[in-house]
Design brief:
heterodimer; A: 313 residues; mainly alpha; MetI-like fold; 2 strands; 1% strand; globular; B: 253 residues; alpha/beta; Rossmann fold; 4-stranded antiparallel sheet; 11 helices; 36% helix; binds adenosine-5'-diphosphate; binds magnesium ion
Chain lengths: 313, 253
């Protein structure tokens, strides 16, 4: 064996170690700076408006009133609805892909899922605005309003641009995330477990249901949270299709009415805002969004850790 | 000595894509006896048993032809494939209890799919089957634990209990002791001898003396062909084929 120059390797090793520590520290520092910047810049709003940002339902920059509730509600509602719709569709795609699809369909399907994930969100926005909005208005919203419009959440008039449309567009944007991860996870089901259940007379569906999904469930849960995060943070497409109205959900609770989200509020007002308080309020909105995202991720981590501790993974 | 035929396998051929892994196998598996399947690794033993309960066809590109008559009904055509697998149980080389299910749920996992049993019945069946594989006394206080928390030998007996819970008529075992320690192996061999009071057992083993110890009939496979099938005593005392003799005396493979 050739003698290794151990001093050189030791040096190399410690340089590498400090490099890694440095990179990690940089990531942490970056996050802290970002968080600090948001708090610092929103400080005028936090100190002047106080809690009324979190309870107020009116946003009137001329009058200096900045209540964030409709934007928070729009953000949470559209993201949660989109994720809820995306879950069964994505799992359906993933189950079809891993259990049923012939290999030629598989390659086409995975190409399209990747493409869907790669489409810039402004294109989803344009598509939602010009194609989906009129379709949904004529074929979904108007018939529903006509049939059960007396129920407030389905009340007319049926605006094309609405929280409903935004949720649908977000659904389409979330599907590739959840489905591509679920395909990986379900495809990772240990063959011995699959065969175990199949040898007991299980159908393909039963095998997925009782072995594949339980085995992958923590991963699928993480994928869903990732999808939810994507939906919460999406800006461009939502801004283009949600109609940017602060009347939902208090003046009208109809799903077919225009609404707003935190991201679209910021995107549509930040460049026009001139007063310090207005700018600070918009930045406080961003801070609220960050806190929401962090909370969701933390809770998700806790759930995952608890499940792992219980030993059934 | 041979009982009536339980499984009559005729002209069985199997392929993996182009590879012809099983060549025209004809064999009659008797009722309530133990049939050992021996042969060098890669000779088609696993393929043979996996054709019997139609697990072979799950592998992409795998094909099979021929007949396997279970009490006269062809598992290829005469029966629903799920039914075939319920009537012909299987135990694998590596114990594969479901880690997301408790010990008790593992035993009745297959019955739950059929969905015709009450909770009470399921618990009774679980107890009965754990008793018949000699596991009840060892783990009756751990029924709620994950199936994966047991030792290797216990896991394998749990898998046998799981197969037995379906009330199969035949049980196929693919080298069930190859991952077990000697003590667990001995227990499992005892269990196999007991099982033949109820059902037919087809057991693959790479251990020739195990075949001699536990089986009534032995099938020797070589390069995808069934070279010799006879009563175990004859195979070990007067093998007709020189290949068989060379294999059982340990002179190859
Ligand atoms: N999944 C598979 N794909 C392709 N060929 C296989 C596969 N499984 C087994 N074979 C081939 O089929 C032959 C028989 O294999 P097998 O039945 O597993 O043998 P044994 O169980 O006797 O060791 C071997 O030559 C093996 O290489
Ligand atoms: Mg094998």
């Amino acid at each position: 064996m050739p003698r290794r120059n151990s001093r050189f390797f030791n040096l190399q090793d410690s340089v590498f170690k400090y490099l890694l520590i440095g990179v990690s520290a940089f990531v942490v520092l970056l996050f802290i700076t970002l968080f600090y910047m948001l708090i610092d810049r929103s400080f005028p709003s936090i100190s002047i408006n106080g809690l009324s940002t979190l309870t107020g339902t009116v946003w009137n920059s001329a009058a200096g009133i900045f209540g964030a509730v409709p934007a928070i509600a729009g953000t949470l509602f559209s993201a949660v609805i989109a994720t809820l719709f995306a879950i069964p569709i994505s799992l359906g795609v993933a189950i079809y892909f891993t259990e049923y699809a012939p290999s030629r369909i598989k390659s086409v399907l995975s190409l399209f899922i990747d493409l869907l994930a790669a489409i810039p969100s402004v294109i989803y926005g344009i598509w939602g605005l010009w194609v989906i909005s009129p379709l949904i208005k004529i074929y979904v919203q108007q018939p529903i309003v006509g049939a059960i419009g007396f129920i407030p959440i389905f009340a007319g008039p049926a605006y094309g641009l609405s929280i409903f449309l935004a949720s649908m567009i977000l659904t389409i944007m979330v599907i590739p995330i959840i489905s591509s991860l679920s395909i990986e996870l379900l495809g990772g089901t240990p063959p011995s477990l699959r065969e175990g259940l199949i040898s007991l007379g299980a159908t393909k569906w039963e095998t997925v249901r009782h072995v594949g999904i339980p085995f992958a469930r923590l991963g699928i849960f993480s994928a869903i949270i990732l999808g939810l995060g994507r939906a919460l943070g999406e800006t461009m497409a939502v801004t283009m299709v949600i109609g940017n109205s602060y009347l939902w959900p208090f003046e009208t609770s109809s799903l077919f009415a225009p609404a707003t989200t935190i991201t679209s509020k910021i995107a549509s007002e930040l460049y026009e805002a001139t007063s310090t308080l207005h700018i600070a309020s918009l930045i406080e909105l961003a801070l609220i969004l960050l806190v929401i995202t962090l909370l969701i991720n933390t809770v998700a981590r806790l759930i995952i850790n608890r499940t792992i501790k219980r030993g059934y993974y | 000595m041979s009982n009536s035929t339980k499984l009559d396998i005729q002209n069985l051929n199997a392929w993996f894509c182009e590879k012809h892994a099983l060549k025209n196998v004809n064999v009659k598996i008797p009722d309530k006896e133990v049939v050992a399947v021996i042969g060098p690794s890669g000779c088609g033993k696993s393929t043979f048993v996996r054709c019997i309960n139609r697990m072979h066809e799950l592998i992409p590109g795998a094909k099979a032809s021929g007949k396997a008559l279970l009490d006269g009904v062809d598992v290829y055509g005469g029966m629903d494939v799920m039914d075939v697998r319920r009537k012909i149980g299987m135990v694998f080389q590596k114990p594969n209890p479901f880690p997301n299910m408790s010990v008790a749920d593992n035993v009745v996992a297959g019955l739950k799919l059929v969905g015709t049993h009450s909770k009470k019945e399921l618990a009774e069946i679980a107890e009965e089957r754990l008793k018949s594989v000699g596991l009840w006394e060892e783990i009756k206080d751990e029924l709620k634990k994950s199936g994966a928390s047991l030792s290797g030998g216990q896991q394998q007996r749990l898998c046998i209990a799981r197969a037995l819970a379906m009330n199969p008529e035949v049980i196929l075992m693919d080298e069930p002791t190859s991952a077990l320690d000697p003590a667990s192996t001995a227990k499992l061999e005892e269990l196999v001898k007991k099982l033949k009071n109820e059902i037919s057992v087809v057991i693959i083993t790479h251990n020739v003396s195990q075949a001699a110890r536990i089986s009534d009939m032995t099938a020797f496979f070589y390069l995808g062909e069934l070279v010799e099938f006879d009563e175990t005593r004859n195979i070990f005392e007067h093998p007709k084929n020189p290949l068989t003799e060379r294999y059982i005396t340990g002179r190859f493979g």
